Amino acid sequence: MGMMHFRDKLPLTWCLVMQLSCILHQTSSVDWPEEQSRKESLSPVDPDSKMIPEEQLRKEIPHTSDGGLASLDTNKCKPNTPFIWCLPQDYNQEKHPFTYFHLVNKSLPWDYAFRFVIEEISNINDKSQTMSISMYFAVSWLEPRLKINESATEWSEARTGPANEVNESPEILKYIWYPELEIYGLDTFGRQRVLKEMSGVRIIKNKTITYELGVRITISCRMNFDDYPLDAHTCQFQVGSYYDTHETVTCSSFFIYDLDRQRSLQHFIQIESLPSEFKVMELPSGIYAACGFQVRLQRKQMQFLVQVYLPSFMFVIVSWVSFLIKPEVVPGRMALLVTLFLVLINIFNSVRENAPISSRLNAIDLYLVVCIFLVFGALMEYAVILLLLKKRRKPMRTIDQGLRHLFAASNGAAAVPLRDTNTREMLVTYANNKAVITEAVQNAQHEQRQVCENCIVEELLFRFVSKFDGS
Questions:
Q1: Largest CA distance in the chain
Q2: Cα 184 from Cα 280, distance rounded (Å)
Q3: At 288, is the secondary structure helix, strand, or coil?
Q4: Are 450 and 393 in contact (CB under 8 A)?
Q5: Cβ 217 vs Cβ 276: under 8 Å
Q6: Separation CA 128–CA 170 (nearest Å)
Q7: How far is it, in rounded angstroms, from Cα 397 to Cα 399?
Q8: What is the pLDDT of residue 72?
Q9: CA 182, 186, 188, 189: dihedral to nearest 10 degrees?
Q10: CA within 13 Å, CB half, 350
Q11: Could you identify which of 40, 104, 222, 394 might form a hypothetical disulfide with 144, taking C-beta atoms 3.0 to 4.6 angstroms apart as the criterion?
């Protein structure tokens, strides 16, 4: 009976087990929400499958009055929403503010206001003729389309800035029109950063927008080095509108410069207002207004006086001292002049290597060339003296030639008239004692005595007579 009862319940138990396994299988195939989101985040989903259709996007984006798409931002005016300032719903950042000058009862030209807080002139490069300036660059313009809530407490309380001003992030410029500017003669334009870019936007209660940022600007500067190192230069920093001519846009500017913060450079620096002749830029595309400042550069000359001018002057004076040395002291005088000449050549090469490029021989090069020429002249003067001494020391004829010239050996008669009878007797004695006199002549040649012909003859005869008197 028991065995039969178990067999009767076996099909029912088997069915229950099969149904339970099916339920567990279905449950395992369905993920929990967290697991499903994790898989979606890790799987490469086609981005286009989740994009909003273009037609739906155009319906959701607000449109301007002229049919253009308005910016997707949070600064648009919204009904029943408190605001400090906002942009109208039909605001188009591609349109210039001066097209809405009727909103503020203002006529053209539009005005840009620049402010330059100059920290220092950080570098002046003579080789590339450039000047680097570290400063805070600010530009302000009027935006008549702004909606201002004059009753907002932020205008009266200094919460986000000075009174009647509020500070905004520079990201707001993505949705607001801002001017296109050009810096004339710009080489590089670098923005200063610490953790973020050093910049900011200020909205003023009178609908003026000010954009300020810390920059390091390198501009080209035309320099003339013909008077180097006595040169002076003027460099102009000019900025203006890139597209709009002076009939549409004008500008004004002022600068702040603290000379105490200026690092020591090779120039004396003076910054002044931009002269009127540089406030207008005439280009092939039109005439543009420009604003900025002018920098005057005067090179410091003390180091050149001590390192170049004074030593060169002293070397020339020392070369003139060589005139006091006897010409016979050839090694000492020649070594002094040649050494001074080579030292001046070395100074010239060193100065020329560090000097900027000039259109002609500059002032310091001309000075060194004159110094080199003076030392070279002293060297040439000594060479002429040595040449004259050499010619003077060389006799017109040797002693034997002089004696043969004085006496005609063939007939024993004198070729030149003798002064007195004593001399004639001495010459006769010479003819009889030629061997002794020849020995005396050789001794005289050995002692290198160079005198006139008659003096030589008289000296030899005097020695001859003295020798016979002694014997």
A1: 196
A2: 11
A3: strand
A4: yes
A5: no
A6: 34
A7: 7
A8: 43
A9: -30
A10: 10
A11: 104
Q: What is the C-alpha to C-alpha distance for residues 4 and 441, in angstroms, rounded to an integer?
A: 172
Output the six-digit token pair for 189: 């334009």
Q: Copy the structure tokens of residue 93.
A: 């950042």
H/E element holding 270?
strand 267-273
Whole-angstrom CA distances from 99 to 22, 148, 440, 457 are 74, 19, 122, 119
- Which pair of structure tokens corresponds to residue 442? 């050789």
Q: Cβ distance 414 to 408 under 8 Å?
A: yes
At 415, list the tokens.
């070729």
Q: State the Cα–Cα distance between residues 188 and 451, nearest whole angstrom.
A: 82
Token pair of 120 as six digits: 């220092």
The model carries a pTM of: 0.66
Alpha carbon 64 to its chain's center: 50
Strands 208-220 and 130-142: antiparallel
**pLDDT tens by residue, 161-190:** 788 899 998 999 989 999 999 999 999 999
Structure tokens at 53: 């259709």
Query: What is the structure's pLDDT at 151?
Result: 86
CA distance 385 to 446: 25
- Tell me how far apart the alpha carbons of residues 247 and 262 are, in angstroms, rounded to a whole number: 38
Q: CA 143 to CA 307: how far, in whole Å?
A: 59
Say how many CA atoms lie within 13 Å of 312 toward its Cβ: 24
CA atoms within 13 A on the CB side of 76: 16
Question: How many Cα atoms within 13 Å fall on the side-chain side of residue 366?
Answer: 11
Q: Which residues of the chain have pLDDT under 50?
A: 1-11, 24-25, 27-72, 408-416, 418, 448-453, 471
Instruction: For 79-198, list the strands marked E by DSSP.
Output: 85-86, 110-125, 130-142, 147-148, 165-168, 181-184, 186-191
